[in-house]
Amino acid sequence: MTATAELWPYLVLVVVGFLPNEIWRALGLVLARGLNEESQIVLWSRAVATAILAGVVAKLIVFSNGALANIPLEVRMGAVLVGFVTFLVVRRSALAGVLAGEATLLLGGYLFAP
Amino acid sequence: MRRARVREAQSRLRANRLCDKTRRPMPDSPSFQTSTAAFRGGAQHALTSVFFPVMAGTYIGLGALAHDFGLSAWWLTLSTIFVWAAPAQVILISGIGTGAAMVEVALAVTLSAIRLFPMVVALLPLLRSRTTRTGELVLPAHFTSVSMWIESLRMLPRIAPERRIAYCNGLSVAYMGTATTFGLVGYFLAAGLPSLFAAALLFITPMSFLISTARSATTMLDRVALGLGLVLGTAFAALHVELDLMWTGVGGGTIAYLVHRLTKARANA
């Protein structure tokens, strides 16, 4: 019984985490055979991947969970905006953008947290 | 044989064009004598790239999350190696932690992972040369994740085709090592971390993903897809549309692709 309880998270890891995730990589590996890097299907795939990624980003910010959900939505949105503008202004530096966004979130969270 | 050589020349030409587009001078293409050197070169690039601190931060946040939900440090490490996708790991960890139905968690994980499919499809043609066996592509396919994909698409055109797989594997192993290490750092830090700082750690993921995607979006196609993804992703989730991420990707991506085709057709006309 205790052995099952200890192994349970690992079984979940394989069945609920690894397999549903890895299937898309395997599918890509099988279907990418013979495709050229500038073929139309690859260009379209790239656009779909970028859009899904942007969707994940939007959801993590707008519909946060965990400790981030304690920070008001306005503060999260403001911090993203500050981070992004900083990135554009400071010679497209990713690090500067992330740091500015983080600083804004910490400050806003400190001032406006419920 | 001739076709292969033509393809190689074409790919070099494209690499040049890519550099023109980003208005960067063609950097000295690193030339590696052996695969081992290429592997080491890739690892070195990973550890000095902007994604190093970003990935360290993301995985400190993930480690903190895993600790909060009562998972073991071993579990965290194995999930990093086998799942190897921060968004899927966030979903998995919070799903287990909040006791969500496993079917629901699996569906959310697979939806968040759809993006890996087009990424692999876009990446593998860059790695494949005329002598490549499919077996050699299994590891790069598993290693495919956001940071690795963005850096590979940026760096690989500058690397000689026969050294690209080794370079890519070196890059990926270094990123995975970074993620594993800092996941454990976050895990053991989490015990004493106040909520505000935990929130700041969790915020690193979306902030860095947004900026890194924007940074590599050098073409109209990428930029339109990025913008539409942000808008549609928020809208579909707010409207509780089922399979919202899939529709965000297919809808936003297809519109971006059509815009790209139209502007290209107009430019050629």
Radius of gyration of chain B: 20 Å
Largest sheet of chain A: none
The H/E string of chain A reads HHHH
Shape of chain A: flat
Shape of chain B: globular
Q: What is the first-to-last residue Cα distance of chain A?
A: 43 Å
The multimeric state of the shown protein is heterodimer
Structure overview:
The complex is a heterodimer of chains A (about 110) and B (about 270). With about 110 residues, chain A is mainly alpha-helical. Chain A has a domain at about 65-115. Helices cover about 80% and strands about 0% of the residues of chain A. In chain A, helix 3 (about 75-90) packs antiparallel against helix 4. Chain A is flat and about 50 Å long. The mean pLDDT of chain A is about 85. Chain B is mainly α and about 270 residues long. Chain B folds into two domains: about 35-215, no CATH class; about 220-269, no CATH class. Chain B is about 75% helix and about 0% strand. Chain B contains 13 helices and no strands. In chain B, helix 3 packs parallel to helix 5 (about 85-95) and helix 12 packs antiparallel against helix 13. Chain B is globular. The chains are: A mainly alpha (about 110), B mainly alpha (about 270). At the A-B interface, helix 1, helix 2, helix 3 and helix 4 of A face helix 1, helix 3, helix 4, helix 5 and helix 6 of B.
Overview features:
heterodimer, A: 114 residues, mainly alpha, 0% strand, B: 269 residues, 2 domains, 13 helices, globular
